[in-house]
Design brief:
Blueprint lengths: L7 E5 L2 H12 L2 E6 L6 E6 L2 E7 H7 L13 E5 L3 H8 L4 E8 L4 E7 L5 E7 L1
Parallel strand pairs: 1-4, 5-8
Antiparallel strand pairs: 2-3, 3-4, 6-7, 7-8
Length: 127
C-alpha cells in the first residue's frame, strides 16, 4: 500500500467559529462548503494543506460513536510554515499557547497552541 495523500477531518460543535479561527489565525480559506450557506461540512486549504471540518450533528449520523466523544483532545496537527516568528507574534495573546517558540534538537523552530475546539496545532519551520 502507498498512501497518496492525507487530510485531517475534525469534528466541531461550532463550524462558523472554527472557520473564522482557521482563516484569522492561519490564513486558511474555504474551498468547499456543504451547503454553501450555513454549512455543516467544509474543506479549508492553505498551500498544500487541507483540513475538513464536520459538525458533530452531521458527523455522528455517519459515525454514531462520535455523538458522545468530546471535541478536541488527543490529536495534534503538525504543520510546516514560513515566517514562524511573525506568525507567533501575530497569534500570541489570542490563543492558548502550549509550547512557546523554541528551537529543537532536530533542526526546527516550533511552537504549539490550542485551536478554538481544543485541538493542538504544532507549527514548525526548518532552521
Amino acid at each position: 500500500m502507498k498512501v497518496t495523500g492525507l487530510t485531517i477531518e475534525l469534528m466541531v460543535d461550532d463550524i462558523q467559529k472554527t472557520i473564522n479561527f482557521y482563516k484569522t489565525m492561519l490564513g486558511f480559506e474555504v474551498t468547499v462548503s456543504v451547503p454553501e450557506k450555513e454549512p455543516f461540512f467544509v474543506v479549508m486549504s492553505s498551500g498544500s494543506a487541507k483540513l475538513m471540518l464536520y459538525t458533530r450533528s452531521q458527523f455522528s449520523e455517519e459515525i454514531p460513536e462520535f455523538k458522545e466523544i468530546p471535541v478536541g483532545g488527543s490529536i495534534a496537527m503538525y504543520m510546516n510554515v514560513d515566517n514562524i516568528e511573525t506568525l507567533f507574534g501575530k497569534i500570541k495573546g489570542k490563543v492558548k499557547i502550549i509550547q512557546e517558540l523554541h528551537e529543537t534538537d532536530y533542526g526546527t523552530k516550533e511552537f504549539s497552541f490550542e485551536d478554538c475546539n481544543g485541538y493542538i496545532i504544532m507549527l514548525a519551520n526548518e532552521k
